[in-house]
Design brief:
single chain, mainly beta, two-stranded antiparallel ribbon, elongated
Length: 104
């Protein structure tokens, strides 16, 4: 099971560098690594027609962001990790201490 790694993550601030939306910027809402696409907040707004349901008795035209290719975005600023969140450096290098009575 291989995981595809990309230069941007969810929550990063990015700028669109090519395509119809060049020059606009926003925060990444979702990353689809298999399709190599990202959803950027406020970029490529599309209209999705929703059929009648209990939530929408008369139907609805919803506006939402559409995906753009990951190669068309440039990272401006990484999302700052929250205080108390696990960091990558905290995972490695620390081993549980052994008491003097145990041997292995």
């Amino acid at each position: 099971m291989n995981r595809i790694k990309h230069h941007v993550k969810k929550g990063d601030q990015v700028e669109i560098i090519s395509g119809n939306y060049r020059g606009s910027s926003g925060r990444i809402l979702a990353v689809f690594p298999g399709k190599q696409r990202v959803l950027v907040e406020g970029v490529r707004i599309i209209k999705k027609h929703l059929r009648k349901s209990q939530d929408n008795p008369s139907g609805k035209v919803a506006e939402r962001e559409g995906p753009i290719h990951i190669s068309n975005v440039r990272l401006l600023e990484r999302e700052k990790p929250e205080k108390g969140a696990k960091s990558e450096t905290g995972k490695k290098g620390k081993r549980p201490e052994r008491s003097e009575g145990t041997s292995k």
